[in-house]
Design brief:
Elements lengths: L13 E2 L10 H12 L10 H10 L2 H10 L3 H8 L3 H11 L2 E4 L2 H14 L1 H4 L4 E4 L18 H13 L8 E4 L9 H9 L5 E6 L18 E6 L4 H5 L9 H9 L6 E6 L8 E2 L13 E4 L2 E2 L7 H13 L6 E3 L22 E3 L2 H5 L9 E9 L1 H11 L7 E6 L7 H11 L5 E6 L6 H9 L7 E7 L8 H11 L5 E7 L13 E10 L5 E10 L18
Parallel strand pairs: 2-3, 3-4, 4-5, 5-6, 6-7, 7-9, 8-10, 9-11, 11-12, 12-13, 13-14, 14-15, 15-16, 16-17
Antiparallel strand pairs: 1-2, 17-18, 18-19
Helix pairs in contact: 3-5, 4-5, 6-8, 8-9, 14-15, 15-16, 16-17
Length: about 550
């Protein structure tokens, strides 16, 4: 946004602004600045003297308001670095939510906080710590190892020193739960405003005496499991039970729960959580529910005994806005609810049968159908449902079509079924097809996409030029602003185990004098040396 170079010593932390807000139109930003600066023609970000002038004249409350509405991390940082005055003003906005997304981020940031940065630490309200984590769509290299015990002990030191006293949300995303259980008791004792907690677990058993289950009056809780090596997966019980202490904390001592997530992050894992007790909960404020790789049936239980309690549970929680449920035989295969149930549902992830039975279809804005691949026949049934989803703006879908399929007809049917679509994530695990079939269908539709994430199979003998593909797509659909294009030379069975050959991220920065789109390739990575695994949509709730 602003022509400001980031200094080399800026902390490598990921911060986020208000994700639930719409981006602030830049025309409105400029009009606000123009109102307080004067003649727009004399305004220039590139001239230091002019910059100091407008910085001194714009009221700080306007600066804060602009920063709170920006959704781009780079824009917020650029705005804050225009002057020391604005940087000091925007510290609460910059550091209200901190995501340490790698071992390096954990090491550098925690060292800096421990060395004496209380002015920054005191603004942190939401903290996510990811030691030994790697985003395989961003990096080919394995993560640099860090001692997770050191990370946990560093957080304990920060908490006991009072530097994280304003913390309201904490999520641990390591390879295993913290071995030193004192981190949970310290957080509970020293962070009186902490109401949202979560952790990732590995192959080790969950201790029933863990301090994690001693919290009271939570508003958010998350328990997830990552992919386990096959040798570990083999010895896992088919339906591992969750400790009674966990359910007591959630059901008996957290009546104001708003977000709940119990999930296994990999489709390939044989680990399936036994979550039958979740139907005993009654949380009037529950608005975000994610259950992944969960079971609702015990040994010998009939389907009727499984489905009826879960449907009653959903009907008893009208405040739910976001819902994700698994596509497993041990979970209800269809949704049967009264017409007035789930009146506030806006985001849903499940299978095609689940969607068909959802009430309130006309108000759903975000839909994810990536748990199972859809054939041409199944897609035609789904499109019949999509036509009733008048508010749908975001769709994630996984297709597996025959080699004889008319791809143009399939894509055209899909676009005609959801004409208000703005964001599309499309994965095709079938045989290679010509991109012109997609662009032609898009050109002939009324859809005006803003973002596109396209993954497909390509012939090894004819690798595509992704920049040319992005240019063609942008020319076909001028409303496109961001594209992620990726391909593999082999088909796949699970969407989170795609052997990516190449991934390219492209931004449309406007048009040239000749009217051609200006495409900037943000990332270009090859997956030839490393198997890249793609994270599924809804990987983390918005409150994490």
């Amino acid at each position: 946004m602003f022509d400001v170079h980031l200094p080399s010593k800026v902390w490598p932390v990921m911060v986020s602004s208000k994700l639930w807000q719409s981006p602030l139109p830049m025309s409105l930003v400029f009009s606000l600045i123009k109102h307080h600066v004067g003649d727009w023609k004399t305004f220039s970000f590139n001239h230091q003297k002019t910059q100091r002038t407008w910085v001194a004249r714009v009221p700080l409350d306007i600066i804060i308001e602009i920063a709170e509405w920006l959704t781009s991390v780079e824009d917020v940082l650029s705005l804050s670095l225009t002057s020391t005055r604005i940087y000091a003003t925007l510290l609460p906005v910059l550091y209200t939510s901190v995501d340490l997304g790698s071992s390096r981020m954990c090491k550098v940031t925690l060292d800096a906080l421990l060395a004496g940065k209380p002015d920054v630490a005191r603004y942190i309200r939401r903290l996510v710590v990811r030691p030994n984590h790697v985003d395989r769509r961003r990096s080919q290299l394995p993560p640099k190892h860090i001692d997770e015990n050191w990370v946990a002990q560093s957080i304990v030191k920060l908490v006991t020193s009072g530097r994280l006293s304003k913390l309201t949300s904490f999520f641990w995303d390591g390879s295993e739960m913290p071995q030193d259980d004192i981190i949970w008791s310290t957080l509970r004792t020293c962070c009186p405003e902490l109401r949202t907690v979560g952790t990732n677990v590995g192959p080790k058993s969950i201790s029933v005496d863990s301090e994690l289950f001693r919290f009271n009056d939570l508003t958010g809780f998350s328990l997830t499991a990552k992919t386990l090596p096959d040798e570990w997966d083999t010895f896992l019980p088919p339906q591992p039970e969750l400790p009674d202490q966990l359910w007591d904390m959630l059901i008996e001592r957290s009546p104001r729960l708003e977000q709940l997530r119990i999930s296994v992050l990999s489709q390939r894992s044989r680990r399936v959580w036994d979550t039958r007790r979740v139907v005993q909960g009654r949380w009037p404020l529950l608005r975000d529910l994610e259950l992944g790789n969960c079971s609702m049936s015990g040994s010998g239980s009939s389907r009727a005994l499984m489905e009826a309690p879960f449907m009653q549970f959903l009907a008893a929680h009208p405040a739910i806005e976001r819902l994700q449920i698994p596509s497993l035989s041990s979970f209800p295969r269809a949704i049967v609810l009264p017409p007035g149930a789930l009146p506030n549902l806006r985001e849903f992830a499940g299978n095609a049968a689940h969607v068909k039975g959802l009430p309130n279809l006309a108000r759903i804005k975000t839909l994810s159908l990536v748990h199972q691949p859809l054939s041409e026949k199944m897609l035609s049934l789904v499109c019949g449902t999509l036509k009733h989803m008048k508010s749908l703006t975001s769709l994630s879908i996984w297709l597996h079509l025959d080699a004889q399929t008319d791809h143009y007809a399939v894509f055209r049917t899909l676009f005609d079924s959801c004409r208000g679509l703005l964001h599309l994530e499309l994965s095709c695990s079938d045989t290679p097809w010509d991109i012109i079939e997609f662009t032609s269908a898009l050109r002939g539709s009324r859809v005006q996409l803003a973002t596109l994430d396209l993954t497909r199979v390509e012939c090894a003998a004819n690798e595509p030029d992704l920049l040319k593909v992005a240019t063609k797509l942008s020319t076909t659909n001028p409303s496109l602003r961001r594209m992620t294009l990726s391909y593999s030379f082999t088909t796949w069975v699970f969407l989170d185990s795609v052997a990516y050959q190449r991934i390219g991220e492209f931004l449309v920065k406007g048009k040239s004098k000749q009217g051609q789109p200006i495409i900037l390739e943000k990332h270009s990575k090859s997956g030839r040396r490393y198997l890249q695994r793609r994270p599924l949509p809804f990987q983390l709730p918005k409150w994490i």
